[in-house]
Amino acid sequence: MPKLFDNSEEFQELFQVNSAEDAKESQSKVIKQIHRLLRPFMLRRLKSDVETSLLPKKEIYLYVGMSSLQKQLYKSILSGHIDVVNSTGQAADKIKLLNVLMQLKKVCNHPYLFDGQEPGPPFVDGDHLVTAS
Questions:
Q1: Can you tell me the distance from the alpha carbon of 133 to that of 131, in angstroms, rounded to the nearest whole number?
Q2: How far is CA 89 from the centre of its chain?
Q3: Could you report the per-residue pLDDT of 58-112, keeping only the tens digit for each?
Q4: pLDDT number for residue 75
């Protein structure tokens, strides 16, 4: 917006924090300044404000067990990384544990996320995509 921001020095002055001791106060001023500048461009409405005839959101939680392939992969990942699971809590062990947890999450999402699990090639659509997960 060249009409609003026609000079780079003025723009820099608007968002500059003055000193270290007043950093909190000047930071809050900068945030207020940003909000003031962006307010005309932001449109934020709730769905309930726009369309009143819609029913409220309804969430249904459906718990489904893992397939046999998922159980097999889950157990193999856990047993392959049992030293990480039983670790003492070092920083490097925490990172390894997060990686193991990500692998377990992938198993729960779909076992075909791992190479070599999907039957093929040729890879085709079919019921095996649903029954494997």
A1: 5
A2: 25
A3: 999 999 899 999 999 999 999 999 988 888 777 778 888 999 999 999 999 999 8
A4: 96
Could you give the CA distance from residue 119 to residue 130 in angstroms, rounded to a whole number?
13
Residue 117: CB atoms within 10 A of its CB come to 15
Which amino acid type is present at position 20?
A
Over the chain, what HEC string results?
Answer: CCCCCCCHHHHHHHCCCCCCCCHHHHHHHHHHHHHHHHHHHCCCCCHHHHCCCCCCCCCCCCCCCCCHHHHHHHHHHHHHCHHHHCCCCCHHHHHHHHHHHHHHHHHHHCHHHCCCCCCCCCCCCCCHHHHCC
User: Tokens representing 22?
Assistant: 């007043």
Cβ-contact 108, 66 below 8 angstroms: yes
Q: Classify residue 14 by burial, with Cβ atoms within 10 Å: 0-12, 13-18, 19+.
A: middle
